[in-house]
Write a structure and sequence with these properties.
There is one protein chain. The chain is an alpha+beta fold. The chain has 24 helices and 14 strands. The strands form five sheets. A five-stranded mixed sheet has the order 5-6-7-9-8. A three-stranded mixed sheet has the order 1-2-12, with helices on one face. α15 crosses α17. The two termini are 32 Å apart.
Length: 687
Amino acid sequence: MKPKFLLTLFTASILLFSCKDDTKDNQLAEADVKVDTTFNFTVEEFADIKVLRYQIPGWEDLSLKEQKLVYYLTQAGLSGRDIMWDQNYRYNLEIRDALENIYNTYEGDKDSEDWNSYVTYMKRVWFSNGIHHHYSNDKMKPEFSKEYFDTLLKETNTELTGEPYEVIFNDKDAKKVNLDPSKGLLEGSAINFYGPDVTAAEAEAFYKKKSSPNANKPLSFGLNSTLVKENGKLVEKVWKSGGLYGAAIDEIIKWLEKAKGVAENEKQANAFGLLIKYYQTGDLQTWDDYNVAWVEATEGNIDYINSFIEVYNDPLGYRGSYESIIQIKDFEMSKKMKVLEKNVQWFEDNAPLLPEHKKDSVVGVTYKTVIVAGEAGDASPSTPIGVNLPNANWIRAAHGSKSVSLGNIIGAYNNAGSSGVLKEFANDEKEIELEEEYGKNADKLHTALHEVVGHASGQLNPGVGETKETLKNYASTMEEGRADLVGLYYLMDPKIQELGLTDDYKKTGMAAYDGYIRNGLLTQLRRLNQGDDVEEAHMRNRQWVSAWVFEKGKAENVIEKISRDGKTYYDIKDYDKLRALFGELLKETQRIKSEGDFNAAKNLVENYGVKVDQAIHKEVLDRNAQFKSAPYSGFVNPVLVPEMDDNGEIKSIKIEQPEDFQAQMLSYSKNYNFLKVKKASKVTEAK
């Protein structure tokens, strides 16, 4: 899954995986990926966002055929970009069109505070692929007045009326993804996966009636469709050629056909063919066939992610957000981390799980560091730094999984600067020294263990349904917490030193534990507005893991809460006992998943992962005010520019770096705008 790592420039330890989470400097591949340190990684900052660039080291070493493959896959990815915009909210495309038309045609005063506020709002919308914040899910409020917006609309002859106009300023659809059942998981969510009159109970009942041809290989029902009511009856609008989003999907297919024509080997070509068939038919059995073919296509220098993948944006956990990541293998770093692939069974055998919850044979796990060549949809501009796929439990058990670390993305983060948060929130100099000496490697190993061992670990009890069905709205945070706990448990195991992954497992574990507790109980609160609950899945899992071990260790003073000069710190007194608590919680978390124990998941998350101590939260925000660096980061993509010969064939492909954020966003809207907007409709049609 995408521990969908979204990265920030915090030095505190926050975990980022394809479990998409952009909260941490988990420097998985560190600076081992060769980068030109004279390169200008920073594009600009606005609001709470820093926009960066990344390089594609080794591009010139690829053959022309390999470069073509990367180019075609990049074009396929971008062709589906607007699907993500529409998935995020039903009026996003209409609002974006209006905002961009104003920006392109306004001839008035562009030095005014109002205009600057308008441009900042538009950039925030671009960054989040819609009007809801990419991380908090809150609707972003413009800092210009409705009256000023009316003036801009009038002076640029831009039409935006009705609900799409009103929603920019009112309180409706305030949360993209709501996980509070009391507000209605669907009724309280603006995400455009369901019709406006579909309730969570109705959707769950709809899918409960479905059954897979093979109960041991459950299909991913709901993954690629919008569920709406027609004449009072629930129906699925499938995302496929000729169906919903068909115009964009046809473009994706066109470029995938070209990619298939330059595939590196037969297995890769076979996977392309199945993905194309899936887009053509929308058939979920074909989706499973594709995932099996994709996970088994491990040879070659180029790999990719493309389709409707992660389900974090669906409060019910059925529907996949569109995303694309194109990857070039980094041979040096992949070789270094291959040791985890070879020893994954040892980790499973020695995990503190109930025997019946362990896999007898963990198969097909591959782990590579890759160079990103392009991203789109849910992966851009805010990107993961690591990915583990496929998500289907039965495919992972029978055929394995692919884990990748996005090395050049991490290298760009590392070279773009950082804040002084560590020294502000660490308890003492010893903690700071441990972080500075072992923190980066600890983060790298935690991410690797999370992805390779954590997501591959454990098994469901016979007859227990898929986690999204049993644990429902708690499935994502439980899975990420479980994978985190696997990593935490093994970070202080002598095995990692025996395998040559660190020169001191004890200090590596201590640095990791310090960082995780510091972040889970303090520093990640910087991302929340005062008074907010914790809602994002990764933030929740870091809090419930940290809060649980803190509470359970109170009797033996495993972690001491310290107040000094009006500031709160956490000091780990016994790292070995803390490791034992991580193991105990891992055992229980795996039990919950294996048995499908919804009530236990609910109690764990709601009691430890949602509510925030408001006094501590205010303190954290006050302490953090001294740091001016934007807390969220993302990227513009390098532009691959083909040069054609006299016959119209590509003879070379060069890389150009975007000069600014707005130019790339406007270019994307112009060149990859394949969806037609049907106004005042819950579901955007694709004609």
